[in-house]
Amino acid sequence: MPDLSCNIAGIRSPNPFWLASAPPTDKEYNVVRAFEAGWGGVVWKTLGDDPPVVNVNGPRYGAWWGADRRVMGFNNIELISDRSFDQNIAEITRVKAAWPGRAMVVSVMFPMERAVWQRRLAQIEATGADGIELNLGCPHGMSERGMGAAMGQQPDLIETVARWCKELTTLPVIVKLTPNITNIVPAALAAKRGGADAVSLINTINSIMAVDLDRMAPEPTIDGKGSHGGYCGPAVKPIALHMVGEIGRFPETRGLPVSAIGGIGNWRDAAEFMALGARNLQVCTAAMVYGYKIIDDMLDGLARWMDSKGYQRLDDFIGRALPNLVDWKSLNLNYVTKARIDQDLCIKCGRCHIACEDTSHQAITCSRDGQRHFEVIDAECVGCNLCVEVCPVEDCISMVRLENGIDPRTGRAIDPGHADWTTHPNNVLATAPEPVTSD
Amino acid sequence: MSTRRDVASERLEPDCYERNFADIKPALTQHQAAVEADRCYFCFDAPCTTACPTGIDIPDFIQKIRSENLIGSAADILGANIFGAMCARVCPVETLCEQACVRNTAEEKPVAIGALQRHATDVVLRDNVQLFTRAPPSGRRVAVVGGGPAGLSCAHRLAMLGHEVVVFEARARLGGLNEHGIAAYKVNGGIAQREIDYLLEIGGIEVHTGTRLGEQVTLEQLRAGYDAVFLGIGLADVNALGIESEAVPGVVDAVRYIEALRQAPELSALPVGRRIVVIGGGMTAIDIAVQTRLLGADEVTIVYRRGPEAMGASQWERDLAQSQGVKLRYWSRPRRLILDGGEATGVEVERTLLVDGALVGSGETEVLAADMVFKAIGQKIVTDPLDASAADILDTRAGRLRVDAGRRTSLGNVWAGGDCIGTSQDLTVAAVEDGKRAALDIHRVLGA
After folding, report:
1. What CA dihedral angle connects A123, A129, A132 and A138, to 10 degrees?
2. DSSP string, A347-379
3. How many whole angstroms separate alpha carbon B436 and alpha carbon B424?
4. Residue B277 β-bridge partners
5. Which of A138, A143, A410, B196 lies in disulfide reach of A150, CB 3.0 to 4.6 Å?
6. Which residues of B touch A (CB under 8 A)?
7. Nearest to B41 among A66, A67, A351 (CB)
8. B168 with B217: CB under 8 angstroms?
């Protein structure tokens, strides 16, 4: 079996799956159960300064479901740990002593007062923990008090706090980033400038799950009122993948270790994040929905997949997809595809036709000889992939590359070479061809 | 040897009846409906809708279930088929909408369209949400003969269009076969009457029960006294077995028995044989076979002269019968009754086979003991009430009334629909469509 052991910023764990700082890592009882289940590490639920925060006593969570109540998106308005600092420290100490091989990272959130950080980090270091994670990402509640996302949205504060931590503790410092910004790179860069050993992302996304149309109140609703919460779960994975990938490919942040978070529910999600450069994974929603046991599939599936690909350790594939993540302008405009409908697999629902007919390029027929028949009209097909996405049958419609000949849509010969926007004649910023002079 | 007929009531423990005749396809819960609705692909030019005789926009009503707009969903359904709640229960969906569902191709499991249709329409009937209003009065009066699905569908649509309707029903209660002829376990909770109450609420429909055409009222009178007449008279007689002396005790008309069963205040009071033979291969044959089993009959055998593929009853119906312990005996036909003291105690059946496409007897016979022999080999029209007009509008070869696409007969002001017409598939849903089309055609003609 392949070696799943993980090392991020000097923090070692037997596998790359950590539980993220959240309710599953709130206290000794949960964390011990998680370690017993096989999780490689935890980021302890965020510690704040005393006195502890208080949580609402009504609903803290909201969900968006598929038809069969599968949780697709999840949000919360829970704050950081509402237990005393000392109680948390005592439990962390005990758990780390009992489980020395597992990664124990302590999430922290303090106000912009260096003295507080100094005092508290010393206490955390004394627990034997392996590292700290700076919660600069929580979008709800704490951000109203100038912490969490309120700090993470200001690169200068990220840099300052990261620098304080590097000065005040010998523990590795992970900066957890908020996605509630327009571009993740400046935030990651600020963490790097501050000396952070790694970044973790994404924290949750500002969200309102729904509006109760009878009470005219946002959900989850507390005594008739609602407040935005942090969105997570499978629905946010594409956003997280993008942000992780940006850090991996941007020259100034490339190489900064990334702990990926955001909708990871199985080994495949994990492998995708790692292919975009993540060194390890943090999981929360999947554990909250299904319990700690989902680690079984994550470990088993990842190992089997690595075996099937000949990868012996995580480093063999971490970042492998990054070279293929490029700007739009670098995409090959000579790559011409046409949709192909496998008539044997087609169940004749007609969704490809109506999607193309109503909203795209009128490139799929709906009948032939009076019978339902769905076929691509190459002269109209731009290869957009909409039909593939709406087809309910896997592999029924595929995009097939035209290798040579004439594209019936444009009437132009297929050019086997690469040509992209940077050289396209319609691009006024493209490298200008030699000027034509006339005598 | 004397083989006295064993026919008795109260064959079962008292609490068995309610259980046996419980809803055979229970209603979906809200969650089940949400999951099932999510399976609908919202097909373009949906094959299910094409397959529905009443043309219900099925993807649209399912989408409305998905968005929890059940009233809107029911409006889609009932707007096309005012008997949508009944059809949701009794339609042979496995040969109509659900057979056309593209999910069959994908995974051999169609969307449960019938169950979803029930989910939406039940809410409207339960909460009595009236979805239909009448157009301004047209001043026209239409007579509807027959208060079954065809007649009432016609009456409701005419009422919507602003016409005054008078319904003449021979029986004491409206509903036709919905009320009198469908297996009880398909139509629990008085749904047939509830649906009729609902549709009559639109107003403008006057009902005369106990009024039989040819007796209390004649076609001639109706044609003279009304702007149009719709005949939804059904098939009032049953076909004969064509064997000797079949009018004896022990030989029972399945339709009549089911009618008695549907109207019985106490099912336990119904006398039923211990050994039952049903002759026939349609829905009625299944309905009587299963229901006699549920009333406590020990052995029930359906005798059908051809193979399963030729049977009128669908695969689902056949499976139902077999799951209830009914024996299906194909390629057999009755030759003669076994009589004892003037009563039928059995039936001699003969093996059949096809020779050059023709069904013939093999000569090989067997006697099946029977305390009751049910005739379920189809019904036939009774034309007497039509008087002299019958000659003009009856397709004698088909034994049904002849109509055009608008369900109009050759008598200018007479329309017809339901089981009594030539194009009928003998389905509730087809009768509803006939009534609807006739109403639209009457409206067109009266407006001209």
Report:
1. -90
2. ----HHHHHHHHHS---B--EETTEE---B-TT
3. 14
4. B301, B373
5. A143
6. 31, 34-35, 37-38, 41-47, 66, 102-103, 105-106
7. A351
8. yes
- The beta-strand segments (E) located in A208-312 are 210-212, 217-219, 229-232, 258-261, 280-283
Q: Residue B41 is nearest to which of A349, A353, A366, comparing CB atoms? A: A349
What's the CA gap between B239 and B281, in Å, rounded? 13
Handedness of CA B94, B97, B98, B102 (dihedral sign): positive
**Nearest-CA distance A402 → chain B (Å):** 29
Which residues of A touch chain B, with CB atoms under 8 Å apart? 66-69, 347-351, 353-354, 366, 372, 392-393
- By CB atoms closer than 10 A (0-12, 13-18, 19+), residue A387 is buried
How far is B180 from B170, CA to CA, in rounded Å? 13
Which residues in chain B touch residue A68, judged by CB atoms under 8 angstroms apart?
34-35, 38
Structure tokens at B14: 């008292």
Q: How many CB pairs under 8 A join A and B?
A: 39
Task: Name the residue among B34, B43, B105 with its Cβ closest to that of A67.
Answer: B34
CB contacts, 8 Å: A372 with chain B:
45, 47
Of the listed A6, A138, A352, A356, which one is catalytic? A138
Q: Are A172 and A130 in contact (CB under 8 A)?
A: yes
Angle between the B113-126 and B30-38 helix axes, to the nearest 10 degrees?
A: 140
Helix axes B58-66, B113-126, angle to 10 degrees: 70
* Radius of gyration of chain B measured on its C-alpha atoms: 23
Contact criterion met (CB < 8 Å) for B44 and A66: no
Amino acid at B384: D
Measured distance CA(B289)–CA(B279) in Å, rounded:
10
Residues 6+ apart with CB under 8 A from B174: B147, B152, B167, B193, B196, B207, B209
Contacts with B34 from chain A: Cβ below 8 Å: 67-68
By CA distance, what is B102's nearest residue in A?
Answer: A347
User: Is A350 in Cβ contact with B43 (below 8 Å)?
Assistant: yes
- CA dihedral of B198, B200, B201, B207, whole degrees rounded to 10: -140
Q: Is residue A396 annotated as part of the catalytic site, yes or no? A: no
Confidence of residue B7 (pLDDT cuts 50, 70, 90): very high
CA distance linking residue A233 with residue A256, whole number of Å: 25
Residue whose C-alpha is closest to residue B197's, from B117, B300, B128: B128
User: Across the strands, what pairs with B6?
Assistant: none
Joined together, the tokens standing for residue B252 give 């029972």
- What is chain A's pLDDT, residue by residue, as a tens digit (439 residues)? 899 999 999 999 999 999 999 999 999 999 999 999 999 999 999 999 999 999 999 899 999 999 889 999 999 999 999 999 999 999 999 999 999 999 999 999 999 999 999 999 999 999 999 999 999 988 888 888 888 888 999 999 999 999 999 999 999 999 999 999 999 999 999 999 999 999 999 999 999 999 999 999 999 999 999 999 999 999 999 999 999 999 999 999 999 999 999 999 999 999 999 999 999 999 999 999 999 999 999 999 999 999 999 999 999 999 999 999 999 999 999 999 999 999 999 999 999 999 999 999 999 999 999 999 999 999 999 999 999 999 999 999 999 999 999 999 999 999 999 999 999 999 988 765 555 555 5
Residue located via tokens 């731009």: A382
Nearest CA in chain A to B34: A67
ipTM of this complex > 0.90? no
Q: How many angstroms separate the CA of residue B35 from the nearest CA in chain A?
A: 5
pLDDT per residue as tens digits for the range B315-331: 999 999 999 999 999 99
Among the partner-chain residues B34, B38, B44, the one whose CB lies closest to the CB of A351 is B44
Of B37, B38, B105, Cβ closest to residue A347: B105
